[in-house]
Amino acid sequence: MTADFRYYFEDFEPGHMMEIEGPTLTEAEIVEFASKFDPQPFHVDAEKAKRSIYHGIIASGWHTAAVCMRMICDAYLLDAASMGSSGVDQLRWLHPVRPGDKLAMRMTVLETKTSTTRPTMGIVRHRWDVFNQNQELVMEMTGVGLYRRRNPGAPAAA
């Protein structure tokens, strides 16, 4: 048994939830990110954003997803025996994120299974729900994480 990391595959059980506090986004951060990666007018131009359906600057969904990734890293992934990811299955932006919004996330483990081709690896399907300070669901995402098994000689999980 090894103790190099806090979290291994075996630490992610279906139904397990983790509440994660996140940052408050400023207008400057929103505009800076969007200027580089998603320069649509409602992300970067206050006057044009006022005339849009959003009636003001909103964060790019990609910015929200990037913030979500940072929250995941800080909460558990940097302390995990992560072997990467095979991707995101679903990503939906449900409510605009505005300057001054404070984000929080709930991570839920949906399912786990041991890799059939790599017995040292387990596969974890996660769901991440991101909320603003008003408890409005602003983003939901499901995806797959690959994690080293703590004890690869143990019987495989179903």
CATH class: Alpha Beta
Assign the CATH architecture.
Roll
Backbone shape = elongated
Quote the CATH topology.
Thiol Ester Dehydrase, Chain A
Run of helices and strands = EHHHHEEEE
Distance between the termini: 21 Å
Total strands: 5
Strand order of the largest sheet: 1-3-4-5-2
Mean pLDDT: 95
Explain what the structure shows.
This protein is of the alpha+beta class and 158 residues long. It has a single domain (9-148), classed as Hotdog Thioesterase (Thiol Ester Dehydrase, Chain A, Roll), CATH 3.10.129.10. Helices cover 22% and strands 35% of the residues. It is built from 4 helices and 5 strands, in the order βααααββββ. It has helices spanning 27-37, 41-44, 46-50, 61-75; strands spanning 17-24, 82-93, 102-114, 121-131, 137-148. It has a 5-stranded antiparallel β-sheet with strand order 1-3-4-5-2. The mean pLDDT is 95.
Summarize this, please?
The chain is α+β, with helices and mostly antiparallel strands and 158 residues long.
